[in-house]
Amino acid sequence: MAESAAGKPVLAVDLGGTKIVTALITPHGKLLSREYSPTLAEEGVEPVIRRILTTATTLVKDADLPYSSLSAIAIAVAGAIDSEKGIVTASPNLPGWRDIPLKDEIQLSTGVTTFVINDATAAALGEHRFGAGRGVDNLIYLTVSTGIGGGIIIAGKLYSGSSGSAGELGHMTIDVNGPRCACGNIGCLEVLASGKAVAREAQRLIAQGTKTAILEIAEGDAQFVTAQTVATAANKGDAAALSIINKAATYLGVGMVNLVNIFNPEMIIVGGGMGKMGEMLLKPARKVVAERAFQFPASVVRIVSSELGDNAGVFGAVAFVVDTHGPL
Ligand SMILES: [Zn+2]
């Protein structure tokens, strides 16, 4: 590619169940501009695609960069993706998204080469290339949010498995006698340690009459209890909230024990909404790893918070383009 073309920005989009992050980022990871918009997924597929295009158009106009000056568009989506064809095959958080040819639709509207990737995979790549995992060759990224997802980097490369679906870290079995997970299996990490699990446990304790500030923070309605509500109560020293988070963190730690024993990673990076709890979540998880994992791999692994936070997906989408496309 001509020297003048080096560094042409990528328009990166992270399409989640509740919000869309759109950003212009150079291939070297310089953030030029960024916009957040609500997904409003319940409106259906086409309105969401239109919203992506509207935000994208505004962003390139404001930056005075016509679509033709972009090297690519890269979209990270919360769902199962056929990355080769750029199709969103299914998404539990985006109602109606089944076999949607997102790559073709965006390319047709913009004339720019478009890539589609799973959001947790993208976030793993983002942290590896531009975040907490810079320079680390073997790492595991765990996104702990409404659900739990992740990505595996081995020898500096994303491990995607024989048919591209590797990295479903939220669906390793933790408790064979545990509750049923949305995936159909029993006792997955996700059903025990996700944001949804934390909210559900809080609602259970409230229904039992446990004394806690959680209900008050949720304005007296147990329906409004989220992991965020529980975290707020825990920060105020609420005993019930602290015990709920400690329980989720213990399960998370057990999941990490499996990851440490299997992969011997140098680093486990924890991101996602629950990841923002930081040490409140990581400290008990580290303790479980120290107690239960094989001593040698446990002694080398660093368990850390995400550096890029909400931007991990867009940065990772850029890393994916660079990896797939070659130097831009
Ligand atoms: Zn599951």
SSE blueprint and pairings:
Blueprint: E1 10-15, E2 19-25, E3 31-38, H1 45-62, E4 72-77, E5 80-82, E6 87-90, E7 98-100, H2 102-110, E8 114-118, H3 119-130, E9 139-144, E10 148-154, E11 157-158, H4 189-193, H5 195-207, H6 214-217, H7 227-235, H8 239-263, E12 267-271, H9 279-292, H10 295-300, E13 302-305, H11 312-325
Parallel strand pairs: 1-4, 4-8, 9-12, 12-13
Antiparallel strand pairs: 1-2, 2-3, 5-6, 6-7, 9-10, 10-11
Helix pairs in contact: 3-11, 5-7, 5-8, 7-8, 8-9
State the gist of this model:
The chain is α/β, with parallel strands linked by helices and 328 residues long.
Task: Tell me about this structure.
The protein is an alpha/beta fold. It has 2 domains: 3-118 and 311-325, Nucleotidyltransferase, domain 5 (2-Layer Sandwich); 132-306, 2-Layer Sandwich (Nucleotidyltransferase, domain 5). Helices cover 39% and strands 20% of the residues. The protein has 11 helices and 13 strands. It has helices at residues 45-62, 102-110, 119-130, 189-193, 195-207, 214-217, 227-235, 239-263, 279-292, 295-300, 312-325; strands at 10-15, 19-25, 31-38, 72-77, 80-82, 87-90, 98-100, 114-118, 139-144, 148-154, 157-158, 267-271, 302-305. The chain has a 5-stranded mixed sheet, with helices on both faces. Strand 10 (148-154) and strand 11 (157-158) form a beta hairpin. Helix 5 (195-207) packs across helix 7 (227-235). The longest helix is centred in the C-terminal third of the chain and has 25 residues, at 239-263. Residues 1-5 have low confidence and may be disordered. Zinc ion binds at residues 171, 181, 183, 185, 188, 190. Zinc ion (ZN) binds at residues 171, 181, 183, 185, 188, 190.
